[in-house]
Task: inverse folding
């Protein structure tokens, strides 16, 4: 396995130790494009949200937000960002395997670039996300496609960790997939997601 994933907490603690927010302070562009789909007052979960850019933004949209990340260094930066934006987020230090997944609990789950997960971890993660959605709940997911290996502008250099449309359709077959698009776009999200990128975005709901 690529060394970046051998000791994930130590790896991300080191990355997040920079004074700068390495993915920026603004939300993921694709996530923010779907703001109109969010209903204030609902419960939201930001999966592996690092320095907090997406969870803080979700809170500013009027949602009650839980967020977790494996890195305590990242979580401390996320708390600072929340304070700057006067946003209330319930932050926890946890890996995806250790998070206390609650069945039928969330109106919204955002999983943005959770591509540290190998196929086995990813299958369990996706199953937990589906189980944690309330009926009518919304899943917003973005990741890189295999073409990203050519661009090398972010994400893991591991084909097995990248997303394809058939893979996502199979993994989320129990949901109503409203949108599933593969596209190329220039990202400017901190130093880690910068430049032309091969992206995939999915919006799906659990039948209510």
Result:
């Amino acid at each position: 396995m690529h060394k970046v994933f051998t000791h994930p907490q130590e790896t991300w603690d080191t990355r997040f130790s920079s004074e700068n927010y390495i993915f920026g302070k603004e939300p993921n562009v694709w996530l923010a494009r779907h703001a109109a789909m969010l209903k204030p007052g609902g419960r939201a979960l930001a999966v592996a949200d690092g320095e907090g850019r997406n969870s803080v933004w979700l809170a500013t949209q009027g949602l009650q937000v839980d967020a977790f990340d494996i890195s305590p260094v990242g979580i401390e930066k996320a708390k600072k960002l929340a304070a700057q934006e006067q946003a209330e987020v319930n932050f926890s230090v946890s890996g995806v395997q250790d998070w206390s997944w609650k069945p039928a609990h969330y109106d919204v789950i955002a999983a943005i670039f959770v591509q540290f997960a190998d196929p086995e971890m990813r299958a369990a993660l996706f199953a937990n996300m589906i189980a944690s959605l309330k009926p009518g709940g919304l899943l917003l997911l973005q990741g890189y496609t295999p073409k990203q290996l050519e661009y090398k502008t972010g994400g893991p250099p591991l084909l097995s960790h990248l997303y394809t449309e058939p893979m996502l359709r199979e993994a989320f077959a129990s949901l109503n997939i409203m949108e599933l698009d593969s596209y190329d776009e220039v990202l400017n999200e901190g130093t880690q997601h910068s430049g032309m990128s091969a992206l995939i975005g999915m919006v799906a709901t659990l039948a209510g």
